Amino acid sequence: MEDRRDTKLLTQAAKFKRLPTHPMKDRLCQPTKGRLKRGSFIHQTRVLERRHQDILDQQPKDIPQYLENPSWSDEGRPQIRCSIPGVGKKDSQSCAELKSLTIEHIHNSYPQRQWTHVYTGGSADQAVRSGGAGIYIKYPGGREEEHISHIEHSPLSSNNVVFFSDAKSVLQALDTARDKELNDLSSALTSLCRAHTVVLQWVPSHCNILGNEAADTLAKEGTTKDQNDTSTTFKEAKTIIKAKQHKKWLQQHPHYNKNDTFHLLTRSEQVLIFRLRTGHNRMNHHLFTKFRIGQSDLCPCQTGSMTTEHLLQTCPLHDGLRSQIWAEATTVQGKLCGSLDDLQRTATFARRTGVSI
């Protein structure tokens, strides 16, 4: 909860600093005339910013005061395609399968003789520092370039232009036209669409598609160039703050496993497993030792303290049910942190005992 609060404080302060007419901007950016109350928003923000010097070093870029998002016109709207036939969810297919399906789709839908292929890529250190962008263009005649400024007027370009990108979230945001920060990009695409048929096509990343890999290589080269512009938008500031807080959280939780089968459970199953894992539940041991609720921490069987291990392993009141759920001896670790089937068995056992977890 403390980390969440800190993230909210830093994010809100970053927003105030980028609102040119907001009264809080001056209060945050200028020295104070008197002592601040320790519990005030400004005091807590400055304490946090001193812990993260790189946040103080940022040059805030004002949030553009757009009145509305420009709507796509029928004549100036690119086709946005965020899927490829046969390509499933992330990590569900091998790199070779993804490459084969993607190349087949590109060959059939955007034949090189008729389309100008533009691959775009971006790179940054932990997505927050030393950014770079790369653009790789292949014209119908076979010529290749590493620029994009010539697409609209180049004699080499065809009337059909397809942009390939692995940034699905950006394509989806363009499609909905709700993100005002993409207004400049929308305007540029609208201009290109006046004389060209334009398609924005998502492609999977890191599956050895030649053009996409070339753009990524150029983007990585860009990260090594001098980064003279230290100004940051509000969206960039939010990304930096969240990345720092996430890194801090991972350091505090070294045993965190992002592939934990816990995440595949239903919501009700997750609640049960979480309470059994942490010991923060409604069983007698936790209620009595933490809140002095009840007469003791003993289980109703009177043979031991009513803990997670006692319930799952030794409570004689549930021996019959335990043998039905687990035909073979299983450790507490296996029941709480094992396979998906193990966790589902544990959740089923907890429900059928009738114990309030």
Automatic annotation (TrEMBL):
<dbReference type="GO" id="GO:0003676">
    <property type="term" value="F:nucleic acid binding"/>
</dbReference>
<dbReference type="InterPro" id="IPR002156">
    <property type="entry name" value="RNaseH_domain"/>
</dbReference>
<dbReference type="InterPro" id="IPR012337">
    <property type="entry name" value="RNaseH-like_sf"/>
</dbReference>
<dbReference type="GO" id="GO:0004523">
    <property type="term" value="F:RNA-DNA hybrid ribonuclease activity"/>
</dbReference>
<dbReference type="Pfam" id="PF00075">
    <property type="entry name" value="RNase_H"/>
</dbReference>
<protein>
    <recommendedName>
        <fullName>RNase H type-1 domain-containing protein</fullName>
    </recommendedName>
</protein>
<feature type="domain" description="RNase H type-1">
    <location>
        <begin position="178"/>
        <end position="222"/>
    </location>
</feature>
<dbReference type="InterPro" id="IPR036397">
    <property type="entry name" value="RNaseH_sf"/>
</dbReference>
